[in-house]
Write a structure and sequence with these properties.
The protein is α/β, with parallel strands linked by helices. It has one domain: Metal-dependent hydrolases (TIM Barrel). The chain is about 50% helix and about 15% strand. The chain has 17 helices and 8 strands. Strands 1-2-3-4-5-6-7-8 form an 8-stranded parallel sheet. Strand 3, helix 8 and strand 4 form a beta-alpha-beta unit. Helix 5 runs parallel beside helix 7. About 50% of the residues are buried. The chain binds adenine (ADE) and zinc ion. Zinc ion (ZN) binds next to strand 1. The site of adenine (ADE) has 11 residues, from helix 4.
Amino acid sequence: MRVRKNSGMTQPLYELPKAELHLHIEGTLEPDMVFALAERNGIELPFESVADLTSRLQFTDLQSFLDLYFACSVVLREEQDFYDLATAYLKKAHSQGLRHIEMFFDPQAHTMRGVGIDTVIDGLKRALDDAFAEFGITGGLILCFLRDLPVESAFAVLDAVAERAVAGDLIGVGLDSAEVGYPPEIFEQVYARARELGLHCVAHAGEEGGPEYVEGALDALKCERIDHGIRSLQNPALVERLRASQVPLTVCPLSTVRLRGVETMAEHPLPRMLEAGLLVTINSDDPSYFGGYVGDNYIAVQEAFGFSDAAMAALAMNSVAASFAPAGRKAELRGEIAAWSGRR
Ligand code: ADE
Ligand code: ZN
């Protein structure tokens, strides 16, 4: 992964305190870690070497990425694997200004291979607890359902974590994987049950699917946030609805370029979304696959659009506003961002 710095100086945008609200922990598996975990767990990989795997990090669309993402995820088997993965991410993201994380994970990608769901949650939670102790990073876990699996599978996962959800080990549910052909409405009852368990609700919508997927996530799933949501712009009435309600959109600029949602960063709709008054946040999605962690996404946006430091701080403020952090923590984080702005 390329880490960008200003001619050897520390990159100021890495120091801007920020929250990340759209991060798949399986999407932080770096090629060298894929090979290290495969060796540790005695798993044979369909790649010859780290260089071979690295050369495959080029995608034509969402599905071409998902194929590689799931092929690599098989190296995750033990609690320690999930701990090591999340710890590596948290350390890197900390060095890029991360202060609060709402971390996605895909339990069905693991349980279908015989890994226990508690194994996954225990490893991730231990990493988050340690990152809080070491760096003061706050946050929690959002369990994502794979939308291209049957709805019964999603219900089974939710039942399996119900006690832990009520105990506070999870903060929410999400919906990911292949979007087109799998509309949000399929999961209406699953989300209703998740809300009964006290979980927040988010969903990927409008990444490759049209604005009707965003409307479905709002109406059927009662989502509090929309992940990506960039195709909302195709429907002016939906844009007005998102503006008026200030439902946040977790945008992932490098991801959208690498998955060919736009040709180049210059064509990314982020400036238009901001001009329309939408509550937009910047996130990394799957940083080891898309060429950058959360701070790198901020840098790419500033470079592409020439946004001022004040505009970048406003985007960090959005990440705090859009988070599920308690009010006191939000106030703290706003203070940290204001202090960064004061030093600029
Ligand atoms: N799973 C991991 N990354 C994803 C993305 N960008 N869209 C849908 N599902 C995903
Ligand atoms: Zn995503």
